[in-house]
Design a protein that fits this description.
Blueprint (H helix, E strand, L loop, with lengths): L2 H20 L6 H12 L8 H9 L7 H12 L4 H21 L5 H14 L1
Length: about 120
């Protein structure tokens, strides 16, 4: 199986989580631990050291909604409709978990989440 599509999805999921973790202007330690836990679990899918290193290198980088939406749309083009829906569902759930990981859902996070979902419809 070609690992490239999986690696692209993993990177995008992590970047999207980082975007939402930074969305309220505070990268809470619980959000960081949640995302780092995701990264640590990458070993379960195989040799993705390069992907893991790239994600770890971007842990403190803030992304924009436009970057995330554009990258998501580009990525989804490489998959058929059912695969796209699975990827979007996975990403949504990951983002919800990131948002909830600090036990405080802020208005900024909620508004950006809604905008992100709308942009992908």
């Amino acid at each position: 199986m070609d690992k490239k599509p999986i690696e692209k999805v993993i990177k995008l999921v992590a970047k999207t989580g980082l975007f939402f973790a930074h969305a309220d202007g505070e990268y809470d330690v619980r959000e960081k631990k949640f995302i780092e836990g995701f990264i640590d679990k990458l070993a379960a899918i195989g040799p993705v050291d390069e992907v893991k290193a790239e994600i770890e290198g971007s842990l403190n980088k803030a992304y924009t909604l436009d970057e995330i939406v554009s990258e998501t749309k580009d990525l989804l083009e490489g998959f058929n409709k059912p695969e796209q829906e699975v990827i979007k569902l996975t990403m949504r759930q990951f983002v919800i978990n990131v948002i909830n990981s600090d036990c405080v859902e802020k208005k900024t996070e909620t508004e950006l989440f809604k905008a992100w979902i709308q942009a992908l419809e």
